[in-house]
Specification:
Elements (H helix, E strand, L loop, with lengths): L6 H13 L17 H11 L13 H10 L4
Helix pairs in contact: 1-2
Length: 74
Amino acid sequence: MMSVLDDETLKMRYIELVRKGVLERDECASYANKDELKPCMKKKVEEFDDFFVPGTVLISERASYRLRVGYPME
């Protein structure tokens, strides 16, 4: 189970996943109410929790490899 992340770490991890091309930029942007944005972001980040070095926003080496294989950059 994922440890409790503060809002800032959650946002940074989400941004990193979008930047790496794992998530679509607008996957969580479809919510009209900003309050619903965080649960969506949290769910997405939790899906990829094992990609990150615990407690940080850094993507681990193993995950980096998985990203290159699973989500090849054009």
